[in-house]
Known about the structure:
The protein contains 16 helices and five strands. The protein is of the alpha/beta class.
Amino acid sequence: LSAHVLQIAQQKPEKLSVVILSDSAGREAIEVPELQNFLTEDLECPVRVEMLAANRLSQWGQIAITDAIRDHIKGVVLLEISPDALASALDVRGEYQRWVAVESPAFREELRQAGVVPPPHWGNYFLDNYRFFVARTDCLHYLLPGSVLPPLWEHPTDYDHAHPWPSWRYPKIRKAIYSWIDTYDANYKTNLGIYQRMIQRLRVNPQIKVGLYEGIENPGLGGVSKWPNLRRLRGQYAADLHDFERTNCVPYLSCAPEAGVSPEDFWDPYHIRTSKARLCYSDVLAQHVEVLLKPECTVEDWPAVEAAMAPRTPRPATTQAYRQEEQT
């Protein structure tokens, strides 16, 4: 991810692009080559899709990444958001520095606003990001000689042939997962402020349109009826996000319900495992992003445009991955 970000930060914003910032769940839900083909075909012009994803990538990692790539992108930037993201507290131990080796002034300013003294800035890439490299010393093998790893989506996790979680595991982990949102009331305003400032900084580049998209979760996780506080907080999250969308004129995309993903499509509580589900999800995402990429669509017009969009027509099952799964 860090190498990919640094590559983008060196390029000129010539080709129309869609940049997606996500954790590992989004990475496994989206077929990047297919999404790129869908958009290129529908818009009749080349579109590049950049998937900037890492395990547990939070809004703190998104701050540094968007600050680095802002002046090098023309098109749409999608920021993942979720109830867990808005409920999370700032990790004052500096855990956020272990997930991406990208330094940025905006990131340091956000730390100051949160009341945290930024770590020393040495002006040396490796010293400024030492927490990252201490956690994964093998990265130095690729970065020191100047070589970089290929895009992660070229070597996706082989969830298609993995055994999905057995049903008995979900009740055991459900309590832990649902407890992540318990701190929502204490932290959501702070985190919405972080997203708001991140969107404002991206919009300094008039060639960028910013959108939010909902993180994906296995609908089979279940048991919500037994957690009244969870139902209340998720309802509040939906209302808060609706207000944020209207106040900041930022499109919000929730593709999983429209894509019709089912519990059988998941390997665990968050990661899609079937090619068919990934293609359906990518298809839905493409049809929404396609509207945003059109020059005549502005973010101020989005609510009306979204409401007027025709019902989604699934694409013919013509991809190799889809055919292979149907044959199986």
